[in-house]
From TrEMBL:
Family, per entry: Belongs to the flavin monoamine oxidase family.
Domain Amine oxidase positions: 12-436
Alphabetic keyword roster: Oxidoreductase
Protein name per its UniProtKB record: FAD-dependent oxidoreductase
Alphabetical list of InterPro entries matching this protein: Amino_oxidase, FAD/NAD-bd_sf, Flavin_amine_oxidase, Flavin_MAO
Top-level taxon in the UniProt lineage: Bacteria
Lineage, opening ranks: Bacteria, Bacillati, Actinomycetota, Actinomycetes, Micromonosporales
Amino acid sequence: MGTEVAVVGAGFSGLAAALALARAGVRTRVLEARDRVGGRVLTRWLADGTQLDLGAQWVGPTQDRVNGLLARYGIATFPSAAHGASPVIFPDGRHAGAPEAAARVLDLLDAYAERVDPVAPWAGAEAAEWDRTTLAGWLRTAAPDPATARYLGRLLAGGLLAAGPDEISVLQLAFYLRSGGGSRALLAMAGGAQQDRIVGGPPVLAEALAAALGPDAVRLSTPVRAIAQDRTGVVVHTDTDRVEADAVVVAVPPTLAGRIRYDPPLPPLRDALTQRMPMGSAIKVHAVYPEPFWRADGRSGVAFCLAGPVTETVDNSIPASPRGVLTAFSYGPEANALRRMPPQARQASLLDALAAVVGPAARRPEEFVEYDWSADEWTRGCFCGAPTLGSWCGYGPELRQPVGRVHWAGTETATRWAGYLDGAIEAGERAAAEILARTGG
Ligand SMILES: Cc1cc2nc3c(=O)[nH]c(=O)nc-3n(C[C@H](O)[C@H](O)[C@H](O)COP(=O)(O)OP(=O)(O)OC[C@H]3O[C@@H](n4cnc5c(N)ncnc54)[C@H](O)[C@@H]3O)c2cc1C
């Protein structure tokens, strides 16, 4: 009998790992807690066929892995909508351009990113200092004025990592910029990570990957509770079953990997890492209107807000539907404040924020759809997990280091486009390659 590998999690990372192993002739069994594949992607359809992507939604240039898979399975994309002005909205309600000095500070951060090794961010000469410096603290001296500091704090900590600028280190940000190819690649719509959307939504690709694995390769509604290993193999325990294998790929965010029981227990530094990579905190809501009325006023619906519960809005209407979809993102402390509100007050606060972007008609959507990934047992936050202050240097080397027969995947372990669908695929393929290298596959 040949090698057999169990994969925990049927997100893009677990599916990519399983496919790479299956292609090399390795028998795989994917165990997925939810009753669906795809993980942090979820598309909901309104009765008239309007597509609402509640999780990941964009792909862009240089994301070669995800774009390659879309091409392989014949799944089309369409450009994100942005017709008209895309202002920054200041706390006094003024619509204007981004603070002028922001570009210079971004250049400086991009230069920092160039000095980070995406495989070993903890290893650089400045790593320790950057790892203990918060983005907010750094901006207090690097940005020439408070408005620029506020703008960049919300843009970078919020927009990229769904956190507050007090919560992330300069090293984590520099790593993230490096991993995605620089601030412009990460932040731009056209030419950047927000360029395109997927016809049918990202779950279509996850379902294509699962189908390529063949029937019965993925077991849904099967949370993995424990992983035991010894000299001869691993045993993966679910609520009802035990799966024996030669190795296991754990393709879930580190914080969820820490909720699985291990026998023998994880080494101290690896377990400590799982305690120090909390998920980001984002709330993504969709307000749906009979049409994208803001376009008639010359507004794109794309805006960046310097105050209030919403940091970013985008026009998420799709070409195939006449309806207008405005999507708002709230991050970090602002998202947490929203969670503390009763649902009606939360909705009113979010619609007020949309009204500040496109006018009072925003307060009367036909549909209002929110999804909070922090409330989801099998994700517990988004967009991804990130090391807390000091943790890259303290525990980074444990991130991808296998523990015996247990290998680690998930977008958090990627070196390129970490935090994204593309990074999830890289990570899965890398974990598969580790196993193949060790089994001579
Ligand atoms: C709101 C939002 C917006 C985003 N926007 C974008 C975007 O526009 N573009 C982009 O590229 N990325 C985006 N992302 C990030 C992207 O979704 C993730 O990087 C990617 O989906 C991560 O894939 P993964 O396989 O590493 O992890 P996951 O998708 O989290 O997969 C892990 C899987 O493991 C399962 N699981 C967890 N614990 C267990 C267990 N104990 N036993 C069995 N199964 C378990 C989970 O159910 C899940 O299916 C976004 C994410 C969110 C939530």
